[in-house]
Amino acid sequence: FTEMPTDNFVESSFWNFDALFQPQQHPARDQHDTFFLLDPAEAPQLPPGYWSKVKKVHSQGGYSSQGYRYEWKVEEAKKNLLRTHTTSASARALFQLARQEKFSPVKYFSIDRVFRNESLDATHLAEFHQVEGLVADRGLTLGHLMGVLRQFFSKLGISQLRFKPAYNPYTEPSMEVFSYHEGLKKWVEVGNSGVFRP
């Protein structure tokens, strides 16, 4: 695995949400969940040509999706925020990979800070670290993903895993990952995962 560049603490809504097929009316985009910036309030530009493709998939569909059928707004996509996840770095990495003349498989990872407008308690902070991995190749299946996750968690000493179907706007299928916690005597969520949509 090669480390992805993750030095964008300030991110546009486009990379943080839109490029990941998260609708513009999604509750995660609310100021109660996301820290939006006042200065600079907007990204200076979005990738030419690409944002119009993202707009089309949101509003009309494509790649076997009917889309969300709403009027996608570039003004909403330009809003700057403190990134809510490092998956925005994955979206940028996949965009760069798609621009290559000849495809070559890649394995990326990142460990970096993310920010959410959370009420602080024993399980929530406004700033925390996210570990992310991304494998891009042809012919990959959900079984491959489960195998990588089992290997990753086993290296951390976590061997009892369960996978549960979940919903993420940007992956299909999606899975939450649970591990049995001996101290708590219950299954706890240790991760989220999925196969990126085309």
From TrEMBL:
GO BP annotation list: phenylalanyl-tRNA aminoacylation
Gene3D superfamilies according to UniProt: Bira Bifunctional Protein, Domain 2 (3.30.930.10)
EC number: 6.1.1.20
GO cellular component: cytosol; phenylalanine-tRNA ligase complex
Entry keywords, A to Z: Aminoacyl-tRNA synthetase, ATP-binding, Cytoplasm, Ligase, Magnesium, Metal-binding, Nucleotide-binding, Protein biosynthesis
Residues annotated as domain Aminoacyl-transfer RNA synthetases class-II family profile: 40-198
GO MF annotation terms: ATP binding; metal ion binding; phenylalanine-tRNA ligase activity; tRNA binding
Alphabetized InterPro entries for the sequence: aa-tRNA-synth_II, aa-tRNA-synth_II/BPL/LPL, Phe-tRNA-synth_IIc_asu, Phenylalanyl-tRNA_Synthase
Keyword Aminoacyl-tRNA synthetase attached: yes
Pfam families in the cross-refs: tRNA-synt_2d
Enzyme class: ligase
Source taxon at top rank: Eukaryota
Subcellular location: Cytoplasm
SUPFAM superfamilies: Class II aaRS and biotin synthetases (SSF55681)
Main location group: cytoplasm
UniProt keyword RNA-binding present: no
Family of this protein: Belongs to the class-II aminoacyl-tRNA synthetase family. Phe-tRNA synthetase alpha subunit type 2 subfamily.
Name this polypeptide is given: phenylalanine--tRNA ligase
Source organism of the structure: Calcarius ornatus (Chestnut-collared longspur)
